[in-house]
């Protein structure tokens, strides 16, 4: 799948290594064909209004649910597969069913519950987070029984008993592996394409409702080449500044764009849809980076219930009204009149009486 005239890997490697590489390549292409057959089955098609006038779920409510799922993922230190799967389940369920906004919190927690069960089954590990813990941390105002019942409804409507979902993170890992192998055959060791950064970009994209209806294959391909362009720009800047001597961008790096065109044709992606997905992803990432760069001017505000507030500060016995000060005895002038003589000075008396007496002394000259 490389350019014409490129050096064949069998020129300097043994037959066994070449056979293993060819076997691995065939496995990757078989996985790509399988993903293409299943892509339409796990592709959501949401049509949500921006403003809900008739009690409909809006795009804002959908994005809010996605950010709640991401917060749960960070809180319980869950893998990214669980988050991407939960968001995919949420979007597919809203595609098939018309729900009320009051049911969104329960559906959100239920999708996370199903995604955790799927991940535990795939990885053959025990689940570490219980349903009660999910309900408690999410503050969804539902019970563990509600989540269990809603999970069964979602699994039934989406036919989850057949197999696990093929989500955008599966596409991202597959296309990253293909592009990385192509870069290795071109001996482009400077291009890394770190999986952690790609997954972080994917989380940012799937949490935005604008990228929901994009094909998962297009979304993954756009993210891979977005990271590739970023690394090429950094290499060019380093070579221009002289800090990376010997690390200039080789010409073979641009043949990876030909490889992207081959992937696009193999996955039946049109130019219009791919450009649209690229513009959506760049817009979402630019808005996210702009929010990160902006200084946080909002102060942290704790919202407490009345019961919790009384426990923290027992002010229920305090009143906001102060007692009335009795001032009748101040009406009578009990200060004796003092006469001033030429030999006596009242400066010491005035000074001594000022800080103690509640009534200002008045001196009269006779």
Automatic annotation (TrEMBL):
Residue stretches making up the Cyclin N-terminal domain: 35-158
Coiled coil: none
Region: Disordered, residue numbers: 1-22, 333-366
Superkingdom of this protein's organism: Eukaryota
Pfam families: Cyclin_N (PF00134)
Name this polypeptide is given: Cyclin G
Underlying gene: LOC112050692
């Amino acid at each position: 799948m490389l350019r014409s005239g490129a050096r064949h890997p069998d020129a300097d490697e043994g037959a066994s290594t070449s056979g293993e590489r060819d076997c691995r390549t065939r496995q990757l292409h078989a996985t790509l064909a399988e993903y293409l057959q299943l892509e339409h089955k796990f592709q959501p098609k949401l049509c949500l209004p921006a403003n809900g006038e008739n009690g409909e779920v809006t795009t804002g409510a959908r994005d809010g649910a996605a950010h709640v799922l991401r917060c749960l993922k960070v809180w319980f230190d869950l893998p990214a597969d669980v988050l991407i799967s939960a968001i995919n389940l949420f979007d597919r369920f809203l595609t098939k069913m018309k729900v009320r906004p009051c049911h969104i919190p329960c559906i959100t927690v239920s999708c996370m519950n199903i995604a955790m069960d799927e991940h535990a089954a795939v990885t053959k590990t025990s689940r570490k987070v219980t349903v009660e813990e999910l309900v408690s941390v999410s503050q969804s105002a539902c019970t563990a029984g509600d989540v269990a019942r809603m999970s069964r409804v979602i699994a039934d409507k989406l036919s989850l008993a057949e197999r696990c979902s093929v989500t955008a993170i599966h596409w991202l890992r597959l296309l990253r592996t293909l592009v990385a192998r192509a870069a290795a055959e071109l001996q482009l060791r400077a291009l890394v394409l770190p999986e952690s950064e790609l997954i972080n970009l994917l989380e940012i994209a799937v949490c935005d409702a604008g990228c929901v209806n994009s094909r998962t294959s297009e979304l993954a391909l756009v993210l891979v080449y977005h990271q590739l362009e970023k690394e090429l720009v950094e290499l060019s800047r380093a070579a221009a500044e002289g800090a990376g001597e010997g690390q200039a961008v080789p010409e073979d790096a641009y043949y990876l764009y030909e490889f992207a065109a081959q992937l696009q044709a193999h996955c039946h992606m049109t130019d219009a849809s791919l450009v649209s997905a690229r513009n959506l992803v760049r817009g979402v990432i630019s808005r996210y980076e702009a929010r990160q760069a902006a200084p946080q001017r909002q102060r942290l505000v704790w919202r407490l219930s009345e019961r919790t507030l009384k426990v923290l500060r027992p002010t229920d016995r305090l009143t906001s009204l102060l007692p009335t000060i009795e001032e009748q005895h101040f009406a009578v002038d009990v200060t004796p009149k003092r006469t001033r003589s030429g030999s006596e000075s009242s400066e010491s008396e005035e000074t001594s009486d000022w800080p103690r007496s509640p009534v200002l002394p008045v001196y009269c000259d006779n």
